[in-house]
Amino acid sequence: AVGTNIRTYFEGTWHDGDVPIMRAADHATWLGSSVFDGARMFEGVTPDLDAHCARVNRSAEALMITPTVSVEDMMAIIHEGLAAYGPGAAVYIRPMYWALEGNELGVLPLPGATGFAVCLEEMPMPPAHKATTLTRTRFCRPVMESSVCNAKAGCLYPNNARMLAEAQAKGFGNALVADALGNVAETATANVFMVKDGAVFTPIANGTFLSGITRARHIANLRADGADVIETVLTFEDFEAADEVFLTGNLSKITPVTAFDDVTYQVGPVARRARDLYWDWALSAA
Ligand code: PMP
User: pTM for the whole thing?
Assistant: First the structure.
């Protein structure tokens, strides 16, 4: 568990607490066929919940798991589960699918044999401008030919875990990760942006890393605010020369970066502005 006060939706109803959902013989248990998404409720809003529900259905399809819950029904289920929390609660929302059965060889998931659950966990939003640090990692993102990297799949995350473990063993908060060509892709847990001479840059989505829902929202917010946001190929040298670096992801929304190996950055005006824009946009939907 990453939070407290867990609630679980499983087999058509909400349960208080964490409940067992997988069986020993489930395809997902031994073959890793599970997908998930992460969304947030905070200050009474659930920003981009529809996009997170739509993505978990697309992730399922990418792993040949039949998605069995429509986006509309999934949102209704989630809102029903969230109603048990207090109005000020910050909650991490994790819908999940997994394959229950495989074909006679085991490996191929059987169409329609799908488990679905939602896990809710109370988890405070990090304080504004809580920063992190980055380091290089020797591990990199897979490519489509070797991994289903167009899905948010549980089976991709052991690679991210070893990046994080390596970074944290060196005393850094996260890893700045290359794609298979050696350009900057993302971090182990979030997308990455940099600022240089007033323009905002982020690695162009090339199908080998998660081009996040929060990333897209920040790009739209910053552009609407008049910023020049450029999605392009970025090298590690580009990041060493940056004026500002920040991360985006559903969990924290935006996290400033204060160091990349021996290069240090200030928490800058663009990260601050992006945070304000995100909160203004999210709360205006309340
Ligand atoms: N990259 C990785 C590897 C992630 O785990 C996440 C968090 N889901 C992100 C990027 C950010 O994506 P999103 O904004 O859609 O949460």
Answer: 0.97
